[in-house]
Amino acid sequence: MNEQPTPPQRFDTKIAVLLREDLESWQRLNVTAFLVSGLGPTVPEVIGEPYEDADGVSYLPMFRQPVLVFEGTKETLTAAHARALSRALPRAVFTSDLFATGNDHDNRAAVRAVATAALDLVGLAVYGPRNAVDKVLKGARMHP
Fold first, then answer.
1. What is d(CA 90, CA 19) in angstroms, rounded to the nearest whole number?
2. DSSP category for residue 47
3. CA 115: distance to chain centroid?
């Protein structure tokens, strides 16, 4: 008895990360991980069910849908941030200042010390209706 795979699901929402194009590889990975970590606790509907292997070993649940990663210039990131704010979409930011901090308390203080328009953004995560997120990401390109 062959079980047919479930066809891919097209979600009406999108999880997207936008990275500044001039980041080093390790920075891209670090920023992406930090940014998406904020979505699960704040937007619980993005999290699926826990996993279990054939031996009954349990694993943590993960996002229920793909995370799409984009890149763009500093200007693209600034514009996307403004559009995410204007649409009141759930979002997370990573600024260049966070590369110099070593803990959550200092990370929050570094962001709090800078006005919104002056944030030196290197990453942005956003979640929401597919068409709204697409508008936020206007001008960005898929990460290679």
1. 17
2. B
3. 21
